[in-house]
Amino acid sequence: MNILLTLFWTFLKVNLLSTSGSASTGLLYNEAVGHFLTEDQFVQAVGLATLLPGSDALQLAMFVGYTVAGIPGGFVSLFASILPPTVIMLGVVMLLHRIQREAWVSRFVEGLTPAVAILILTVAWKIFRGNTDDPIGWQSLALGGAGLIALLLEAPAPFVLLACGIAGTFLFK
Are residues 166 and 160 in contact, defined by beta-carbon separation less than 8 angstroms? Predict the structure, then answer.
């Protein structure tokens, strides 16, 4: 199959089967690692996408597409990533406009919150732990703990990520 069609199908599938955003990273990990990227490349791409402003999932899609097939691959991956949520959201908006006053709608949305949180934590653990047999070092635990404390104290997330990234350059020589 043509590489651009493969990229299109991969990102269409990932974004049809997930809530997009960070939750799609786990599905993309399963689809991309070993097919398009190595695990190290994927982890670096996730880190870079997290540091940059904007949607992590879209930046990750463009990175994978660009790595595999250059600029056309980046555009195809981006288009395939935004197509399903755009079509679905148009349908949901039309439906919610009709049923917005129903009590069960707000309870349904509240029920989704813990499920999405668990999906994100699962992906974070997979990336944090990796496929290595190396034990988790004190540096990783210290940075993770410091980042968590900063976020709990309501520090702006981009500053926390930037500070942890800078600290990591010195701790992981």
Answer: no
Model pTM?
0.55
135-160 pLDDT per residue, tens: 667 777 788 888 888 888 888 888 88
Task: Give the C-alpha separation, 26 to 22, whole Å.
Answer: 8
**Does residue 55 fall inside a structural domain?**
yes
Domain assignment present for 108: no
| Residue-level pLDDT at 5 | 94
**Total structural domains within the chain:** 1
DSSP alpha helix (H) spans, the chain = 3-16, 24-32, 39-51, 56-99, 103-129, 138-152, 157-171
